[in-house]
Amino acid sequence: MAFKEGFLWGGATAANQYEGAWNIGNKGVSSADCCTRGSRSEPRKVTYMTKEGEIKADVMFGLDAPEGAQFGCFEGYDYPSHEASDFYHHYKEDIALMAEMGFKTFRMSINWTRIYPLGYEEEPNEEGLKFYDDVFDECLKYGIKPLVTLSHYETPVGLTNKWGSWADARTIDCFARYVETVGNRYKGKVEYWLTFNEINCLEFGGWMAAGVASRDPQKIADAGKHQLLASAKAVQILHEIDENNKVGNMIGYGMIYPYTCNPKDVFQTWEKFKGSYFYCDVQARGYYPSYKLKEYEQKGIQFSLTKEEKELLKNGTVDFISFSYYMSNCTSTDPKVLADQGGNMMFGVKNPYLKASDWGWQIDPIGLRLSLNYMYDRYQKPLMVVENGLGAQDVLEANGEIHDSYRIDYLRDHIQAMHDAVSLDGVELWGFTPWGCIDLVSASTGEMHKRYGFVYVDYQDDGTGNGNRIRKDSFYWYKKVIASNGEDLK
To answer: Mind telling me which residue stretches traverse the membrane in this protein (predicted)?
Structure first.
């Protein structure tokens, strides 16, 4: 048997895409709450008021807001996170469905703004703390271990409006206060923690990952430094609270292939990989790698670490590494290739040997096996695949059934790849939590109809739907996979 006894089978969500109830229970406004609904052709936007009082919206990826902008939610805009899948009111029903599938773990995030609505208060919000008490108790009732992400694209907008969020070092102490609060409150209920979701996505733009409304390379570098220091501090805090706590990081990862064997393509592939490895290098090894320091020097980015900060990074390394894997991509230095081919989102050119999803994400299970090997060989720490899955337009049949054989095929092949990485390659893998185990809002587009789940949620992008939960064919298939500990993939 490839997967060890106690392997953590489950599923993953994020509060801002799943929870809803955005202004209930004294919750504050998060960075995700200000993001509008988009589509494959229309990018999501972020809303704010200029210092002159004008309401504006600008693109989420690459946001560069004017000085003095105050971020918030305004009438006339469609914000999908506000309702999402309404887990807030359906958590008992949803967790029961997870238990029916046999989940051993449930990856979810605590929304920082439920605990500290503005981010910088001295005292936490008891209503928010009580809500997560109830959620964790419900999980534990079924023997499901919570895997909790502390920051999953849910930065308090209060911090952005006050001093620029993670671009300012004062946010580190605010985050540490939050971590200490939830660590103490949920001691004995939560054993597995992740610090920042896909922390390396900060390189694509400051808003989603850090609530930073700027593309300025200096501010992005500062925000990255502050999050890395905060991550190290969170590891230390959680270890001090409970020696049984296991704290991991989380990065967005995908295999990158050179489009040709031209050495220029091969070298650019390595350059692209650095974007995945940098944050993980710091969190797993405890220091800034030389290639990043040289990059800062070449770009004129001011960077330094005090002796105390170096010690913090060194002593705050993670216990395990987790990552998302959906697809692979290719990179090329040939201008003609770049002009002729569209790739996966913003990432690269199409691989002629792979098929793609409806959203252009190329399906590559062997790439997952390679990723597991690359990550384990580089860090020699236990791994978790905490996001993986296929976003698709599921059809609810007249008889109430959803036949998603394409999702089963995708997951079967990727689980087989994990199986091979463990049994044939010797990778130490702790768990697997496919993304959006119950349908939720897409982070990249804000759509509801880009569905990932084993359970269909009857909410539509046009605002219709009753929120009913409906089991898909993949629900019963995944239940069988878990019951067999990953051996029965038929």
So the answer is: none
Catalytic residue (one of 19, 138, 154, 387) = 387
Quote the CA–CA distance of 45 and 289 in Å, as a whole number.
34
How many CB atoms neighbour CB 136 within 10 A? 23
Domains parsed from the chain with CATH numbers:
8-21+82-483 (3.20.20.80)
Q: Angle 198-384-402 (CA atoms, 0-180°, nearest 5)?
A: 85
Tell me if residue 397 is catalytic. Answer: no
pLDDT band at 15 (very low <50, low <70, confident <90, very high): very high
Distances (CA, A) of 46 to 15, 362, 455: 18, 28, 29
CB 433 within 8 A of CB 108: no
Is 387 noted as a catalytic residue in this protein? yes
Residue-wise pLDDT for 341-385, tens only, equals 643 345 678 999 999 998 889 999 999 999 999 999 999 999 999
Task: Inform me whether the pLDDT recorded for 143 exceeds 60.
Answer: yes
User: Of residues 19, 138, 191, 198, which has the active-site annotation?
Assistant: 198
Convert 102-131 to b/e letters by CB count within 10 Å (16 or more is b). Answer: bbbbbbbbbbbbbbbbebbbeebbeebbeb
0.85 exceeded by the pTM?
A: yes
Tokens of 88: 């807030």
What pLDDT does 358 receive? 86
Distance in angstroms (rounded) separating the CA atoms of residues 107 and 369: 22
Closest-CA residue to 17 (of 79, 62, 61): 79
